Amino acid sequence: YDYDVFFYTGGQVLSLTQDADEFVNDYNCQIQDGYVTWQRGGPGYSQEIWLYKDGQKKPLARSPYGILETEPRTQGGQVAWLHLDPSVGVHQQVYFFDGEAVRPITSDRCYKSSVRIHSGQVVWAGRSGSMDTQEVFFYNGQQVRALTQNAFPDLAPQISRGQVVWQGWDGQDY
């Protein structure tokens, strides 16, 4: 199958990605405030992150085959996602599009997941240094800091207006 992204505007259904290549898929789409983002790729093809608003589509990331761009999340025209280059190991980086430019906001050698964005602030779960469990990290628009540092897993962070919530285990209940 060749999966595409469709957008219901309230009055009509638009096809944002329809193409003839059956091996390239468009998936993992999300919408917020009229901005639509998705990832695009397939076996032997580049991996890409796209953004759509008011009839305009643009690629935010186009990586060669083998490099993975995944989990795009959007809010207010900004986008955060995970970038994985297997040539340097299985360490993902968090990338951020601020509405004008794309930049990495992490550069460590750690596993990451569950990236979320709100008002230019980004959260994710990941491992830091020698930690064996996932912790929650927060980018406030300027710098990254760990919100948790414990021996228990902290997962699935969400963010809204600078407030962050996540699930974790306190080590007490089995």
Structure description:
Helices cover 0% and strands 54% of the residues. With 174 residues, it is mostly beta strands. The strands form five sheets. A four-stranded antiparallel beta sheet has the order 3-4-5-6, with no helix packed on it. A four-stranded antiparallel beta sheet has the order 7-8-9-10, with no helix packed on it. Strands 11-12-13-14 form a four-stranded antiparallel beta sheet, with no helix packed on it.
Core attributes:
174 residues, four-stranded antiparallel sheet, 54% strand
Question: What topology does this entry show?
Answer:
Elements: E1 6-8, E2 13-15, E3 25-32, E4 35-41, E5 47-53, E6 56-63, E7 68-75, E8 78-84, E9 92-97, E10 102-104, E11 112-118, E12 121-126, E13 135-139, E14 144-146, E15 154-160, E16 163-168
Antiparallel strand pairs: 1-2, 3-4, 4-5, 5-6, 7-8, 8-9, 9-10, 11-12, 12-13, 13-14, 15-16
Portion in beta strands: over 45%
Helix content: under 10%
Tertiary shape: globular
Average pLDDT works out at 89
Q: How many strands appear in the DSSP assignment? A: 16
**H/E series:** EEEEEEEEEEEEEEEE
* Main sheet overview: 4 strands, antiparallel
Low-confidence stretches: none
Structural class: mainly beta
Distance between the termini: 43 Å
- Count the DSSP helices: 0
Task: Round the Cα radius of gyration to an integer and report it.
Answer: 17 Å
Strand order of the largest sheet: 3-4-5-6
